[in-house]
Amino acid sequence: MDKFTTLTGVAAPLPIINIDTDMIIPKQYLKTIKRTGLGSALFSEMRYNDDGTENEAFVLNKPAYRQAKIIVAGDNFGCGSSREHAPWALLDFGVRCVISTSFADIFYNNCFKNGILPIVVTPEQLALLMDDAERGSNATISIDLEAQTIKGPDGGTLHFDIDPSRKQTLLEGLDDIAATLKSDPAISTFEAKMGQSRPWL
After folding, report:
1. Are strands 117-120 and 97-100 parallel, antiparallel or unpaired?
2. Which of 35, 38, 52, 106 has an alpha carbon 20 to 30 Å from 88's alpha carbon atom?
3. CATH number for the domain including 42?
């Protein structure tokens, strides 16, 4: 995965609670096992009209937010089914960070496995960030993972918490397999000892 250290970009406001994974990437797009090409289908039922034209009212179709790298969303983001296509679609669109007051557990875990930073903030902090995000092309937010800070367009800074091990894997750009391979010497030593002490295994 690409390392996540700092991120500065436009934040799109999505003040909707309980955005589920079917809203993020509808079921008809789940036939592929490729992680690319899903960005055009992100939020497709909200982004497009029945005739395939863009819904001009949807936030990601507005000129100021077409290149959004951050989404500021309502509570319980990513609920519903466990489809990993949801973070794939976000990442393929260009979103590297989602900020909310809470996330569904499976979606939250899947974000880290795909290089997306899900940030949990308080309702009061979310209200401030949502206000920042509603500024259109001026809605630029800067995130520093090492310092665990979010800086708004006016310079105000918020602190967020994150599990140290998850933070480290994002900073190093490690997925689960790569993180496990960091312990390869210890694993190999253990297997060699087990082979000597229990050769029948």
Report:
1. parallel
2. 52
3. 3.20.19.10
**In contact, 73 and 90? CB cutoff 8 Å:** no
Candidates 158, 171, 16, 159; CA nearest to 78 is: 16
Span between the terminal Cα atoms of the chain, in Å: 35
Across 47-66, b (16+ Cβ under 10 Å) vs e yields: ebeeeeeebeebbbbeeebe
Q: List the structure tokens of 163.
A: 């599990």
Domain range for residue 146?
6-174
Model confidence pLDDT, tens digit, residues 36-91: 899 999 999 999 999 999 999 999 999 999 999 999 999 999 999 889 999 999 99
**122 contacts 101 by C-beta, under 8 angstroms:** yes
Burial of 100 (0-12, 13-18, 19+ CB in 10 A): buried
**Residue 63 falls inside a structural domain:** yes
